[in-house]
Amino acid sequence: MFGSQAAESAKPPKSAISLQQLEDMFANMRANTKWNLDGELLWGYFFTDPDAKRLEPLSKYLSADGYHVVAIYPTDDRSTNVLHVERVEHLTPNTLDVRNQEFEALAKKFEIATYDGMDAGPALTGSH
Predict the structure, then answer these.
(1) pTM here?
(2) Which of 58, 93, 97, 121 has the most CB atoms within 10 Å of its CB?
(3) For residues 81 and 55, what is the distance between their CA atoms, to the nearest angstrom?
């Protein structure tokens, strides 16, 4: 379907980002930031597809589910497009693992090339 990306996403039925990787990410954030990981953070999530129009129905679905749509934009080399959504919430490695699995399933349901992962930052009061 999408070349090597489709072959890679077909490998594990679980999230491509392992629970161990998420636990390591949280440990790294605890060690290297002053963020309150026991409270809310601003979580960003990324989906990619060569066709920007394919990302629009997913952006509407996620917006209706309480996510702020930051943008749909082309990558620097213009080879694909990125849907960036975010939400302020409290997550743990386990709940983030479940979220990643849900987003990988949504990418398949909406026929999007990939759920490309997430990032986190401090939740700024009044940002949403």
Answers:
(1) 0.85
(2) 58
(3) 8
